[in-house]
Write a structure and sequence with these properties.
The chain has nine helices and four strands; from the N terminus they run H-H-H-H-H-H-E-E-H-H-H-E-E. The relative contact order is 0.13.
Length: 212
């Protein structure tokens, strides 16, 4: 994957918050945080270069780029954090103003005809059959019309985190789904299983929030 484009844009957008939260969440001093960030930038470029290009119709490129960024910082730390600390670190680093705005915009489109059509197209694409760093998903609308489930049987984040020796921290990324859904304001996220915790699949359920 080329660094130019989305990967470089993601670094510019989020690197500052990832650096700040090294101090506010993980309790490193400012000098150490700067050093970690410098190492992470180099590692991030290395990870991006090892990834294949994604198909234009693959909607999950941002997911794997986000994983590359978190992984680059985790691999640059003096010691590996706990899952709880990694979860808070990733959440606070990702949920900047621009991301909250993105979630609100996505929330407004949730459950629309265009949203459903996009989910169906992604379900049919099965991009992980050709790219191990992407996802295979099945679209499952709820029979009562209350929303839908996106059921994942292959996960690019699991693949990359396992290769990088960070698989035990994968739940730190999984839990952001709840935060992003809440920020969207139109759905309640529900889940029973994740591949990272040994489940048969990842069930990402979106329940409509009733309008007052």
């Amino acid at each position: 994957m080329k660094y130019a484009g989305m990967p470089s844009g993601m670094w510019l957008l989020f690197a500052g918050s990832f650096r700040k939260n090294l101090t506010t969440v993980l309790n490193y001093d400012c000098k150490t945080a700067r050093s970690i960030t410098g190492k992470a930038k180099k590692r991030y470029r290395e990870i991006i270069r090892m990834l294949p290009e994604f198909e234009k119709s693959d909607r999950f490129k941002m997911n794997i780029v986000s994983c590359a960024m978190l992984s680059a910082f985790l691999l640059s730390l003096p010691q590996k954090p706990s899952v709880d600390d990694a979860t808070k670190y990733y959440r606070d680093s990702m949920m900047i103003g621009a991301m909250k705005k993105f979630c609100r915009m996505s929330g407004k489109r949730k459950f629309t005809e265009k949203d459903v059509a996009g989910m169906k197209a992604t379900s049919e694409l099965r991009s992980a059959d050709r790219n191990p760093y992407s996802w295979n998903m099945t679209f499952l609308p709820y029979a009562d019309g209350s929303g839908y489930e996106a059921r994942f049987t292959k996960c690019g984040i699991c693949t990359l985190m396992k290769e990088l020796g960070l698989y035990d921290l994968t739940p730190a990324m999984c839990l952001l789904d709840y935060t992003m859904s809440e920020a969207g304001g139109t759905s309640r996220f529900v889940r029973k299983y994740t591949l990272a915790s040994g489940g048969p699949f990842c069930d990402c359920g979106y329940k409509k929030i009733a309008k007052n």
